[in-house]
Predict the 3D structure of the following.
Amino acid sequence: MIERYRDLVVIYENDVAYVISCDSLGAIGNKENDVLKVDEEIVGRTTVKVALSEVLCVGAKPLVISDTLSVEMNPTGQKILKGIKNELEENGLLDVVFTGSTEENFPTSMTGIGITVIAKANIGDLKIKKVKAGMHVSLLGYPRVGSEVLGAKDVLNLSDYIKISNSNKIVEAIPVGSKGVKYEIGILEKISGLKVEANFPQYLDVLKSGGPSTCCLVVHSEEDTASIKGLTDKPLTYVGVLV
């Protein structure tokens, strides 16, 4: 059976599930027409983090990464790939197999990149379809986008998402994308069949883009709040309860 779940595709085969995620980035880099100028290694790191965060949040382990780079291999592609591979190595993801492509037919003046991740999990270990009424919904990290991501201390990194994936206290986790916290709350309500009785703090902009997965909604039992708060050094903010 093949199922679309949030932004993921899940393929079920006997007692195993294969989970597919993807992410793209454009106009960010060091090329002439890039809007936000950043080092190419950061481009690689942030884009692969987003795609990996999606599969990690459902408890799957990455097997394959496909990098489709709309730039030449030398020098831009090599720098992006260095960022991707360093991000994986620094976080202990050493067994991932790579495939990919670059643009060698025409010169490019703007950076573009696509990442696809294929991951695997035992069906019983998936963090999906297990939320219940009475569980709390919290935000781990804080939404940041664009240049404010650089140097921010309250945004999630890949090591945080690995901890989320490995935590048995987190029942479901949803990385916040470009449509913001409120949109992801709506997705949680849709997939769970429940409603979130929201209690957003005034300082939290629930419509703001989460940029490159800088924060994540986590569903958990009330009694596990302290444990989850100690999971990372990023802020944990209560945003509501499922009813």
